[in-house]
Amino acid sequence: MNNIKVFVADDVNNDKLAPLREAGFEVVKETKLSPEELALRIKDADGVIVRSATKITADLMDKAEKLRVIGRAGVGVDNIDVKAATQRGIVVMNAPDGNTITTAEHTIALLVSMARNVPQAHTKLQNGVWDKKSFVGVELNGKTLGLIGLGRIGKHVAKVAKGFGMKIFAFDPFVSPEQAKEFGFELGTLDEVFANADFLTIHTPVTDETRNIIGEDAFSKMKQGVRIINCARGGLVDEAALLVAIENGTVAGAALDVFSSEPLDENSPLLKNDKIITTPHLGASTTEAQQGVALTVAEQMRDFLTSGELRNAVNAPSLAASELEAFQPFIELAEKLGRFQAQIMNESPIREVKLEFLG
What we know:
Elements: E1 5-8, H1 18-22, E2 26-29, H2 35-41, E3 47-50, H3 58-63, E4 69-72, H4 82-87, E5 91-93, H5 100-115, H6 118-126, E6 144-148, H7 152-163, E7 167-171, H8 177-183, E8 186-187, H9 190-196, E9 199-202, H10 216-220, E10 226-230, H11 239-247, E11 251-256, E12 276-278, H12 287-307, H13 321-344
Parallel strand pairs: 1-2, 1-3, 3-4, 4-5, 6-7, 6-9, 7-8, 9-10, 10-11, 11-12
Helix pairs in contact: 5-7
């Protein structure tokens, strides 16, 4: 296995990369590289591991001649051009479970901090001012938590919030009313969640459908005094519309861990508004989470590069080693058919193939 190279482009926990080294892989770690520098470093890499800082573009993939797999030590893969990777036959895998508890707990931390004005009161007291009257908060008990997205993180947030006595009113098109009832949540439409929420938190990826989902139109449907939390992805909340909603009194407060552009500009109006709590993308920043996602992606990449076993691939079906062995002849046949078609159809290249299968 000595000819297999994995390049680590972001600050991933070094000790948890041990499965790659133990498999005999060459592991090279260099962070904060420019795109030009990164292109040179990954030219002969079989695998690349990133967190959220490094962007893996189609252009970079073209320059990485041996690249077979990209591992994201975390959940979101919006810094990776997944479509381009798929077109080039490169597997993109993530570690979807590693950040669940950590991000959910940070959401709860911001929820409580916002309800009781903890950061603002702390700052004023640090400046020598004992001021109780300016920081009268609100109780969570009996309030409605509007929740958009009932994935792993969203469900855990809802579970903990219920412990505070909050009512959970959620929107998720992929969750059935029966499932929601089993968890003790009420499901509604997106507009109904906007209209009923005292606190609103979002836990979805950024897509064409979800970008700026909490924006001017959404704020127009919310009750006065709603409070907004975003620990998911920058771009889900329209920041300009949020500032307007705070100014006109629709939104009583906001707590943001992620932003449309990161790092957040030091002159951003979000930092100058005393009704907004900001943290620098700390959702996944615990020792346990960083170790967990690093180990998970290292083990997954080792197994893929040694046996072809796929786990947590976002652009390919997961296959255990035993299943892969059974499917291998068909995979090889499909590859040969593809090469054959490419040769005979070179003047009018095939752009799409549909496959139907049974059994």
